[in-house]
Specification:
The chain is an alpha+beta fold and 73 residues long. The protein has helices at 2-18, 41-44, 48-63, and strands spanning 21-28, 33-40, 69-72. Helix 1 (2-18) crosses helix 3 (48-63). The chain is globular and about 30 Å long. It starts with a helix and ends with a strand.
């Protein structure tokens, strides 16, 4: 599942980079919890939680049904 998540994040990355940010994969556990780190402008943006949950999490859940949650660290 790790490779699937990394591949899916590559599809999300251009949107984040367009706004001066980025996302780094940290880990995924057996329960389907993906940990990522938002960097650049996204790391300090007040809307970063919305980006994380409504953008990245929703996309990953749609692409990879085993993903249950995405958390930022």
């Amino acid at each position: 599942m790790e490779e699937q998540v990394k591949s899916a994040l590559e599809n999300v990355r251009p949107s984040l980079q367009a706004d001066g940010g980025d996302v780094e994969f940290v880990s995924v556990d057996a329960d389907g919890v993906v940990k990522v780190r938002l960097t650049g402008a996204c790391g300090h943006c007040p809307m970063s939680q919305m980006t994380l949950k409504m953008g990245i999490e929703n996309y990953l859940k749609k692409e990879i049904p085993q993903v249950k949650e995405v958390v930022g660290i």
